[in-house]
Amino acid sequence: MDFGLSKEISELKEDARQFADTYIRPFAAEWDEKAYFSRELFQKIGQKGYLGLPFAKEYGGKAMGTLAYMTVAEEIAKASLGVALSYVATVSIGTAPIAMYGTEEQKTKFLRPLAEGRELAAFGLTEKNAGSDAAGVETTAELSGEYFIVNGTKQWITNASYASVVTIAAITGYKEDGGKVISSLIVPMDLPGITVKRPYDKMGVRSSDTGEIYFDHVKVPKENLLGDQNAGMKQLLQVLNGGRISIAAISVGLAQEAYDKAIQHAKVREQFGGPISQFESVQFKLADMAVETEAARLLVQKASFLKDRGDVFIKEAAYAKVFASETATRNANRALQILGGTGYMREAGVERLLRDAKILEIGEGTSEIQRLVIARQLLKEGADKNGRN
């Protein structure tokens, strides 16, 4: 068992760190203040090949695997969680469904420009009544001749304003028992009838574009059906499992950034004749921050390893997501406490970490949903073992 990164991934990590320190960190506070999404930055990210890290070379990707991708995501998140959120949204849940379930024709047409970094993608599952209850989808896609006619609204969609394509969940029919047939469709964002509402005014991750997408009798070619028409929900939930690892990875990035700011301040801030790092109350906070950040990172690496090996990783992805996201919030709080009044000021950058962190416990399945997933997997494993005895 090797807990170290390969030479290739270590070099990629350093490259991503330098990129983030040059092109993201100096502008992160301004982008947050202005709620500005930098399309120019994502062009640079695309040119670096970061948008194609986990995808096959034959479709324009780098074929470096999940761990390499998560390593880059962590480095970007250290500089700006908003940028990191848009990054993992386009890769893990926008592009991944096409890579996982697309036909050769769909991959050539849609996956290649995404993996090559020329375009961005979005994922359209969430609606007014469909979030934690993914099956609550109300958007419809009625087959009429050569087209699916799509009507409905998708909410809280990351990259809504800048994506060239969105993969949506929609009702394409009903079963004999009245249950919904939910399918996945690849929808180009330039089709007539699509309207994107201006971005939300959010508490945190303000440099990430988030908005609503309206579909009004949008004609989507029937060949854009993604995978099995009757398996859309299963497909999308599998996509979310992978997405949870990426949310965990960027959570680790924020947690690490909070720790770095806290320990740097503790070493130089003096009270009672010496640095505050001499006080156990501060030392204990720093120790907890370091331990939990490293534990979260190892959970991300374990889930990434399983995914790359082709093993089932549902439980491990949920482990990583719930622990890393809650660690990020705890670390942001601890950092603010250690910095005190300085941390409360915008220029310190810690209050932004705290505002940003909370979304990590909500997006890609809330902490409560992760615990449900974990418990169900544990109980299922127990039942399987009992059945074999």
TrEMBL record:
- Ranges where the Acyl-CoA dehydrogenase/oxidase N-terminal domain occurs: 7-117
Annotated ranges, domain Acyl-CoA dehydrogenase/oxidase C-terminal: 230-379
Q: What is this protein called?
A: Acyl-CoA dehydrogenase
Superkingdom, natural source: Bacteria
Give start and end of each Acyl-CoA oxidase/dehydrogenase middle domain: 122-218
Give the catalysed reaction(s), semicolon-separated. Answer: a 2,3-saturated acyl-CoA + A = a 2,3-dehydroacyl-CoA + AH2
| Example GO molecular function | flavin adenine dinucleotide binding
Q: Which cofactor does it need?
A: FAD
Keywords of the record, alphabetical order, are:
FAD, Flavoprotein, Oxidoreductase
